[in-house]
Design goal:
The chain contains 14 helices and 27 strands. The longest helix has 21 residues. Strand 21 and strand 22 form a beta hairpin. It is of the alpha+beta class.
Length: 612
Amino acid sequence: MTGPAAQPAIEDYALLSDLETAAMVGRDGSVDWLCLPRFDSPACLAALLGTRENGFWRVAPLARGPCTRRAYRPDTLVLDSVWETGTGTVRVTDFMPPRAQLPCLVRVVEGLSGSVPMRSELRLRFHQGRVVPWVRTTDRFTVAVAGPDAVWLGDDLPGRPAGEDGSTADFTVSAGQRHALTLVWAPSHRPAPPAALTVPAETVLKETGDYWRSWAGRCHYQGPWRDAVVRSLITLKALTYAPTGGMVAAPTTSLPGCVGGERNWDHRYCWLRDSTLTLSCLLRSGYHEEATAWLDWLVRAVAGDPADLQTVYGVGGQRLLPESEAPWLPGYQDSRPVRFGNSAVGQFQLDVYGEVLDTLYRSARAGIPMPAHVWSLVEALMGFLRRHWREPDQGLWQVRGPRRQFVHSKVMAWVAADRALRLGGLLGRTGSGDQWRAMRAEVHRQVCEEGWDAGQGAFVQSYGSTALDASALLIPRLGFLPARDPRVRGTVRAMRGLEEDGFVRRYARGGRGMHDVDGMPGREGTFLACSLWYAQALTTTGRAAAGREAFERVLGVRNDVGLLSEQWDPRTGRQLGNAPEAFSHIALIETAFALAAGPSPSPRSPAASGRR
């Protein structure tokens, strides 16, 4: 890889994770993205958003080229990549052992036949691919230091690394031979080599594989798409920051929604919009412990004044995520700017109140212990929402244009009131029940009057607009109206206006190459989560065959190791946006369960009512 034009496709990357951070490794054997020591730390390998000069670690045959085939070992996050060359066959096994102390990336090279000349080339660039470290090589290790960070590399290769910074090692592997290379991060003030460098790679490999197989074995789903569901669940687990239970939307930043454009955002944080669906798919899949950890993270993160509720938080629950640009990085295939941090923390989004209250209600119904102050939290959130639900906001899609009266935001205000009442019933609390019932009825009436376009026979994006929005597909799932309601069926039919080759855009593109709702230039791809919502909506409204076809169409665009990004471009046949995207994999799991259940609405959904 010598420049942006030569960068691999987004779908060429596979995910590795130790449950605190992640690496992205390409089909060419190059790790082009790694943040240490956690998901939202500065990247020390950043070629994904630039060039080789921004940091990479490639272990592959000297002749270069993509691997012949690759796959995760069944029910694990251990990746095997195989190269068949003119002189022999070699396998590189990549994995990150679940974090015990320090982050560790292990690469095992094994000769399968013949002999293959190999090269390991490591170029570390700290502080988001910018800072060249000081590198020294000893008899046993190479260590790179810059500021607070130190990265140690140990191996059992014959000879020592070469190159100006001791970063390159050439060796030949023959059939039956095996070599291991281990990279470990440590604080730079610790002078001694990390103990992880001395643990046999085979021991760590076995422990890592056993961990993932044991975890995947807890999955309750037994339907026709089990492999896809398990892979998605493993991906969600891999995106979870184990110390707190928070789940990042993706391990990457600034992979573009439009190649060459500016729709480049940092997704290495936790979005409240994902909270209800995350909890739902974890619980129904059998992962009660993970669901409890997610709830605990959520309750800690939202503590404080309800007026300060954010749409996005850091993995530790931190609120300040200042957004900045990195002009030294040219971006993925010249997609500028590259952004770190996310200014969406300052947006006003009504839907997050419904997400939090729905998550609390579902947790209580599932038997997850509630914190002692949960009812105080409910009353505080509802007190704020009763005063502010009529205001315009930035909506589910976090538009950076003017605030609007988004229909989905109002539906979620209804959800908030509905779930607060239901949670009160579970906990034996009445509180402000009459006021909440009145609010629920008023919101329901307003949405049905002002959010409905009789001409199209569909719910629209915002009051007074004729634009469609895929978030309306969630109306029956949220219990606002039953799937059998003619208005729901009409809305699902109208979504054909957002289709492109069977996939669904989140909203319509405006004129002059701009999107009317956000005013940003550039064509973006279809949204995979929206396409999956469509598949589920088709099924619940009685079109099971069409729903299954739409679902399997999305399954068909997963990459070779089963991963989905945020978007899909039907014109180029490429994934777009940050990857792998939790929102897409959550929707995949939920849709698989819904399709297995058949066309009737889920019995677990709250009944729709504007009056009760």
